[in-house]
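Researcher: Let's do a round of design. I'm pasting the structure tokens now; please hold your answer until I've finished.
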């Protein structure tokens, strides 16, 4: 297991993040990052349907390493996905870029939906997000997070959902905030034994359950966007994906809560050791808050999210600021709006 640095000591309000729109609009930077995810997706596509998920990941990781070396920035990996599955990955703490230009942190999943790609199914994508140094929470050695994601109701009011509330109470609050009935809500829950009680509660409340096996980033894009096909995502999923999802949610102006959800005694012990070493000021930046970490704690600044399809994906609501989607590659992704000034 690679060493995990403590949460970034940089002040979240530092001058480095003061002009996020300026760095995100840099044409050369945007082109280089899009080239990097295109390279990952292109390298993975010949292996689609071959049944070897590790080979899919390895091809994408190798391509990313080469492409990211030339990005005009000083880039540090915060979360690289892959470790919980013993898959090839970019490791936390790795550095990329030319060293000249903006100082950025990177969260990346070389192929989100590796098993989907390996079996030739839709929903696999290469995705990364960058934001100014210190913007992303550090998940440390955590593999899993309990997540709650939804679009903000009209007018921007807080619907008052919470990770400590029952599923039924959250659904009632969300329905009231949108002026709808609970029975009209569409709720995504990853089909895993760890989420069985959540799925049962969605059914019991009368909402429509959208159960999915893989591809929670795609579902988050729909749940966070006002025009998305889902109203809410609930349940325990991957921690590295959670930071990418936070960047997407922030771009959409949506709502996200998350907290550690260890699934084994070993993971609990790793998290306890990690959080015990955090400085007091970094506790909120380490998913330690009892009632969950809100979006500003997960992703404290506007991030540039870059996506390229490996297999066909459905990200139709991905039209928010600071999201750039590769629409020239096969796979069915739609073009996202460019960043606002």
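Researcher: That's everything. Go ahead.
Model: Designed sequence:
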């Amino acid at each position: 297991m690679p060493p995990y640095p403590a949460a970034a000591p940089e002040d979240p309000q530092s001058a480095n993040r003061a002009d996020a729109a300026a760095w995100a609009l840099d044409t050369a930077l945007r082109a280089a990052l899009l080239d990097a995810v295109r390279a990952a997706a292109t390298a993975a596509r010949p292996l689609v349907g071959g049944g070897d998920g590790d080979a899919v990941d390895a091809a994408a990781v190798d391509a990313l390493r080469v492409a990211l070396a030339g990005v005009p920035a000083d880039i540090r990996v915060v979360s690289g996905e892959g470790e919980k599955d013993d898959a090839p990955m970019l490791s936390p703490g790795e550095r990329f870029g030319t060293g000249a230009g903006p100082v950025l942190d990177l969260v990346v999943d070389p192929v989100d939906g590796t098993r989907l790609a390996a079996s030739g199914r839709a929903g696999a994508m290469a995705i990364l997000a960058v934001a100014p140094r210190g913007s992303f929470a550090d998940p440390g050695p955590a593999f899993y997070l309990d997540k709650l994601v939804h679009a903000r109701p009209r007018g921007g009011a807080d619907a008052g959902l919470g990770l400590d509330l029952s599923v039924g109470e959250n659904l009632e609050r969300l329905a009231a905030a949108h002026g709808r009935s609970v029975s009209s809500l569409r709720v995504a829950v990853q089909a895993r034994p760890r989420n069985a009680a959540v799925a049962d509660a969605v059914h019991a409340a009368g909402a429509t359950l959208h159960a999915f096996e893989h591809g929670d980033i795609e579902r988050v894009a729909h749940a966070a966007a006002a025009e998305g096909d889902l109203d809410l995502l609930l349940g325990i999923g991957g921690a590295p994906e959670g930071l990418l999802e936070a960047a997407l949610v922030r771009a959409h102006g949506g709502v996200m809560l998350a907290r550690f959800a260890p699934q084994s005694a070993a993971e609990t012990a790793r998290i306890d050791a990690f959080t015990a070493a955090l400085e007091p000021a970094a506790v909120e930046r380490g998913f330690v808050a009892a009632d969950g970490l809100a979006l500003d704690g997960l992703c404290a600044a506007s991030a540039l999210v870059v996506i390229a399809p490996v297999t066909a994906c459905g990200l139709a609501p991905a039209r928010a600021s600071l999201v750039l989607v590769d629409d020239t590659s096969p796979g069915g992704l739609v073009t996202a709006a460019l960043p606002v000034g």
